[in-house]
Amino acid sequence: MSEPFEPKIVAFVCTYCTYAGADLAGTSRLKYAPNVRIVRLPCTGRISPMFILKALQKGADGVLISGCHPGDCHFTHGNYHARRRWMVFRALLDFTGISPERVKFSWISAAEGGKFADLINSVTEEIRNLGPFDQYQQLIKETESPATL
Amino acid sequence: MITQEKYRTTVKELLASGSVKMVIGYKPGSTPDRRRPLFIRTSEEADQLVLDSTCMTNLSGYLVTEGLLSDEKRVGIFLRPEGIRSINILAAEYQLNIEQIVILGFDSTGRDVRPLEGRNAGDFSGLLSEIKEKPVQTSKEPLLERIEKMNAQERFDFWQEEFSRCIKCYACRQACPMCYCRRCIVDSNQPQWINTSSHTLGNFEWNIVRAFHLSGRCVQCGNCDRACPVNIPLRLINQRMATEVLDGFDHFAGLSPTQEPVLASFKKDDTETFIL
């Protein structure tokens, strides 16, 4: 009997909004899926597309990227820059065959602990339905560098 | 032929008057349909100049050669409209001073070569906006259309198949006028973002990263495509990205030397339909 599939999801979040939102979810004792590994960064503007590729390279089944709502950025416009970058990068992933359903973007403020918990649950559920990212994991296997997630 | 003769004379005049220190053009290559870059410093060298429809290479990458423009003297260069766009981008990214470039513009339809009016980047702004409005290539490439009709799985398989041939020679990078970084991201190993050995995963990552770095900057000169020894259709990715920034942000790369790079600027009302 094989164990049921539990997706590995990497979340890149900005420290001022989404990380604080995750904190709020925690302090409010909200339950959410344990499948997510959170990486805290200073700003969504700091999230290079390389991070997304690296997460996939290390065997993630899905990636979540989240930060402050437009207009709320601690650095005034980091998330505006990030938004453009994501739009282009998302199109690129789509064109090269990585389903955009595996890479999710969202805005979650420090006050939205509930939204954070809901989002993690729904993203986990969606990726669980998509199944493991076999195509990519096959490529990782070829490189003989085992996933370390 | 007439254009070629006219331009040989122009080059000689430019060099004789001392207004440029060098002209970058084309000379015959190893086969009749190949051309090689020619760096003209004397009027004898100008006699080797060839200009015909097979002069495809975008020469603008040579302008960012270290030290070439640091003496503040001017350099002449033969450019197609795409080449003019790429020097506009290089100027917008502060890689060169556009005042130092004397453009010897040309374009071709079929086998006919015709000169383009103007010597300074500003003289071509009308022509470039015309190209933005009315792309020369009106119909999409059949292969691009085929890829867009595929589902994610098929597209993934298609590109893996293409990229599995990649030998990581980085010819695409060397040929590209936009790849001027002193230290490319694949050359850095702390951290190592991209697998450097040439297995498919590393090849895939390399090509994705290159396409991302070129989105909103690529002018589709086709240098990478021609340079690729294993014929990966790199132009398709770049073309797709160019359409993306044109549709999404109305950005047509290289319209003017002062154009803001698309991924280094933003509008507060950029679309965000995909953000949860």
Report on the structure:
The complex is a heterodimer of chains A (149) and B (276). In chain A, helix 1 (18-27) crosses helix 4 (113-130). Chain A has 149 residues and is of the alpha/beta class. Chain A is built from five helices and four strands; from the N terminus they run βαβαβαβαα. The model of chain A has no long low-confidence stretch (mean pLDDT 89). Chain A has helices at 18-27, 49-57, 78-95, 113-130, 134-143; strands spanning 9-14, 36-41, 62-67, 103-107. Chain A has a single domain, classed as Rossmann fold (3-Layer(aba) Sandwich), CATH 3.40.50. Helix content of chain A is 44%, strand content 15%. In chain A, helix 3 links the parallel strand 3 and strand 4 (103-107). Chain B is α/β, with parallel strands linked by helices and 276 residues long. Chain B has two domains: 2-133, no CATH class; 142-264, no CATH class. Helices cover 37% and strands 11% of the residues of chain B. Chain B has helices spanning 2-16, 43-46, 81-92, 125-133, 142-149, 152-163, 171-175, 200-214, 223-227, 234-249; strands at residues 22-28, 35-40, 75-79, 101-109, 112-115. A five-stranded mixed β-sheet of chain B has the order 2-1-3-4-5. In chain B, strand 4 and strand 5 form a beta hairpin. The longest helix of chain B has 16 residues, at 234-249. The mean pLDDT of chain B is 88. Classes of the chains: A alpha/beta (149), B alpha/beta (276). Chain A binds chain B through residues 49-50, 53-54, 57, 70-71, 77, 80-81, 83-100, 104-107, 119, 135-136, 139-140, 142-143, 145, and chain B through 147-148, 150, 152-160, 185, 193-195, 197, 199-202, 204-205, 207-209, 211-212, 215-216, 237, 240-241, 244-245, 248-249, 262-268, 270-272, 274-276.
